[in-house]
Design brief:
The structure is a homodimer. In chain A, the strands form 2 sheets. A 9-stranded mixed sheet of chain A has the order 5-4-1-8-9-10-11-12-13, sandwiched between helices. Chain A starts with a strand and ends in a 9-residue tail after the last helix. The radius of gyration of chain A is 18 Å and the shape is globular. The first copy, chain A, is 37% helix and 23% strand. In chain A, α3 links the parallel β8 and β9. Chain A has a single domain, classed as Ribokinase (UDP-N-acetylmuramoyl-L-alanine:D-glutamate ligase, 3-Layer(aba) Sandwich), CATH 3.40.1190.20. Chain A is of the alpha/beta class.
């Protein structure tokens, strides 16, 4: 069982080819849509009383428990962005926090014993508030973003010291550590506390760094990408989902979790919001997982 | 047996931590230093009468044949650059072509039947001049750079149509094709003629794209990098060297060639010039090759 905390938002996304208005978004959304494929997932979040019913029903479908999803008088968090042609960099057009402004995550008592925790990308103080309420979880993974490195650095450092695994992208890893080489950045981050650092590298895949070594997974190659929003959150959901599914957080299981996280993220980017991620079958997931494994296979050889 | 053509230069490199003056550089240099580890290599290039003897002796050590290395009255090609902190992007400080300005590659008659050809990064017209003199080679691989995309696009397009494999980096692949996704860029490049497109992704590794599928190799993770000059050329040398060693250019051998190219390039970046690349033992290469294979290994699994 997994407890997930994060943002739930209505996203308005502009890409070079498309425009989506108030689709369901937010870190908790993508993590839940993803993790719930693999293990029972409970959500901790907040929405306004304008939260559309179809979106509420999605959470009820994904999550075995939505008692931690607070509904507050006011407006749901809304966010708008425009992607650059590279579909990686984006400009925020507006951020209307609404009820999210006063979000103080409350974990219902019956969920505090959940062994696995996914701390989606929100303020590190809010992430730690959840940790404070959990009762000795087995494994905690957290995501973060540039904003918190810029404005909440000390809180972020404390959060990093309290988790088993940190998921971060390559630019953030460099910014956080001042290191140029990602291998060096990972060493620096390991020294801050987590046993596992997972660096997301966009279309170049993801890497795992522990004190015992590294692992690299490619990203599933796609000819075109519709909307990359939520890809990183989906990745985290696949990772924590697999850990919870296996009831095991050893390195081999984390590697598998990275593979399945990469696989699920490759579906997320094929639509705006959760449309594609929510509609795929197990067979489609397994086929792409097998494809991912095949991408790196080469016959070993010896140079003589 | 491999025929290699490219530039031979005296490089002056500034990095955030170091400064190297007139070290041996140029695409042909790194390709020969690399390929000659694996298969007999002949060089086609030009230097001035100021070319230092120790550098000439390096070519005599690496290459079974240096009759194609012309010495012309005048100055050897000199190039200077300063790297940005990311050790990827660099500013050219000066380019003094010297005798390279009038380089018209001449392949000695006894080398024209060589089955394998490595066209290092020089003007596509010069690359095609070499091709025009070769007698039905088995496999030809070419590298290029942004400069030729900018100023010699039509010549480059013709060159690409004449090679079996193109090695290019991710930014160049996007610039050449106008595609955002590298998978789409590779499709576009395959349609131009080559059966294999190899995209270099810096510290994110390299990928192979053919009509039958893709392959991804990570880069060997290094905590620090001294000087990335020549890494791409070294990579190409490892690739064509392995093809020639195996006398086989099928997809599996190309995959192995990419692995060994990545491996050799990881040594090049640990020093300025060819110092490190030239000094490593077979055991060191094999150890790193085995490490590279281990980086992507994960137990296959099924989601139920």
């Amino acid at each position: 069982m997994i407890v997930v905390v994060g943002s739930i938002a209505l996203d308005s996304i502009e890409t070079p080819t498309d425009k989506a208005e108030e689709v369901l978004g937010g870190s908790a959304t993508f993590i839940c849509a993803s993790a719930s494929r693999l293990a029972p997932t409970a959500v901790i979040g907040i929405v306004g009383d304008d939260f559309p019913n179809p979106y509420r029903e999605l959470f009820q479908k994904w999550c075995f428990d939505v008692s931690g999803l607070a509904v507050s008088p006011g407006r749901t968090f809304r966010w708008g962005c425009r992607y650059h042609p590279d579909m990686i960099h984006r400009d925020t057009l507006f951020t209307e926090l609404g009820v999210f402004e006063t979000f103080s995550p409350l974990v219902p008592a019956h969920l505090r014993g959940c062994p696995y925790v996914g701390l989606g990308n929100i303020h590190p103080l809010q992430q730690m508030q959840v940790l404070d309420q959990m009762d000795h979880p087995e494994w905690v993974v957290a995501d973060t973003m540039k904003l918190w490195i810029d404005i909440a650095r000390e809180d972020l450092d404390r959060l990093i010291g309290r988790v088993n695994a940190l998921v971060i992208n390559d630019e953030e890893a460099r910014q956080l550590t001042g290191c140029i080489s990602l291998a060096a950045a990972a060493e620096h981050l390991l020294a801050m506390g987590p046993a596992a650092i997972i660096i997301k590298r966009g279309e170049h895949g993801a890497s795992l760094h522990t004190r015992d070594g590294q692992f690299y997974s490619p990203a599933f190659p796609l000819a075109s990408v519709k909307d990359t929003t939520g890809a990183g959150d989906t990745f985290l959901g696949g990772l924590v989902g697999w850990i919870a599914h296996q009831k095991n957080c050893d390195v081999e299981t984390i590697k598998q979790g990275i593979s399945i996280g990469s696989c699920l993220a490759s579906f997320t980017v094929e639509s705006s919001g959760v449309t594609r991620l929510d509609s795929i079958s197990r067979q489609e997931i397994q086929a792409r997982l097998d494809g991912l494994e095949n991408l790196v296979r080469v016959q070993p050889f010896v140079i003589d």
